[in-house]
């Protein structure tokens, strides 16, 4: 049976903990979540009473307030949310931003709900969570199937309850409600920027490079847009409606314009001369320089990894590579830029948004993106050097750096850990 995301995250954690020579109890103190919050959300759907289950896992706050997104998906359950919360702890630590890690979500099919029902559910959720969150306690944000609009409803609900502005409670808000310019693009841009930096390290000219992007949603679309703008030929993209391949490169800007008005914002039906349909596995195993998995978990397993022909994988999704897949990539010399680094652009600009809210500032788009690029590239360089030093891959080096920082903070906060 395939391993769960929680087992995979624990595996990556343990590999790094081995390098650090950590004992069992220290591992437990670092990897177990601080607090699990499960809330009941009863509401009427089409007149019928339904009870939804909501979650918030607060994994670790040694370095600052808990931080992480909210996911609306039928697969949301406690173990998955716990794994994603742990990834947030390591991600924020790796980027050296002053946050801990958390994740939340609601087990639901958001596409089966009306806008009014979605709004009610989002308000119920944030209301139920209010005793456990706060701008200096735990700061939620968007994740899979949640967006600016949902953050807007939530900030309104929280502000109404508190009787004052709660803008810094949530990030990824609409600009008009205190959101940051560049937040929308940030995750995808970050994924692209670290891939570009890795190409440079390998001595590959970006204007001669090719890429394939799995997923054309909030992450994949902006990763493709940034690569395209930087002169990389994006030859393939896919989403749940299928995949598109064009040897000469796709016109990503035209595709972006197309999905703004296409049914459910999917790429199906997009046309360009010479375009061909391609399957998910064909996309991942194309002979390109960069592959960006920006869909859901466990896409690159052992079988897929054995067939992959790219030089660099930049992980847009959380947990797209299984431990077996990761081992194959490493043995085949394919560089995997791990999720906790590659997709950290989102939480980095969430941090910028929170800083702006707390100080009453509004930075320009260029200011945000240039700060983001600098942080992403310097983090990649740091992890790359550590991987060379430890003779390991970027994922293990990233976890080592992230765990070290959290452990240091935990030791400074309490004498219990030695
Ligand atoms: N959901 C995003 C992630 O997995 C962003 C989290 C945030 O901005 O807090 O990194």
Summary?
This protein is α/β, with parallel strands linked by helices. The chain has 15 helices and 12 strands.
Radius of gyration: 21 Å
Shape: globular
* Structural domain tally: 2
Please give the largest β-sheet. Answer: 7 strands, mixed
**How many strands appear in the DSSP assignment?**
12
List the helices and strands in order.
HHEEEHEHEHHEHEEHEHEHEHEHHHH
**In which range does the helix fraction lie?**
40-55%
Distance between the termini: 38 Å
Specify the structural class: alpha/beta
Low-confidence stretches: none
Strand order of the largest sheet: 9-8-7-6-10-11-12
Q: Helical region count?
A: 15
CATH level 1 name of the largest domain: Alpha Beta
Quickly give the CATH architecture of the largest domain.
3-Layer(aba) Sandwich
Query: How large is the share of residues in beta strands?
Result: 15-25%
Account of the 3D structure:
With 418 residues, the protein is of the alpha/beta class. It has two domains: 149 residues, Leucine Dehydrogenase, chain A, domain 1 (Rossmann fold), CATH 3.40.50.10860; 159 residues, 3-Layer(aba) Sandwich (Rossmann fold), CATH 3.40.50.720. Helices cover 47% and strands 17% of the residues. The strands form two sheets. It has a seven-stranded mixed sheet. A five-stranded mixed sheet has the order 1-2-4-3-5. Helix 1 packs across helix 15, helix 3 crosses helix 15 and helix 6 packs across helix 13. The longest helix is centred in the last third of the chain and has 26 residues. It is globular, with a radius of gyration of 21 Å. The two termini are 38 Å apart. It binds glutamic acid. The site of glutamic acid has 12 residues, from strand 3 and helix 13.
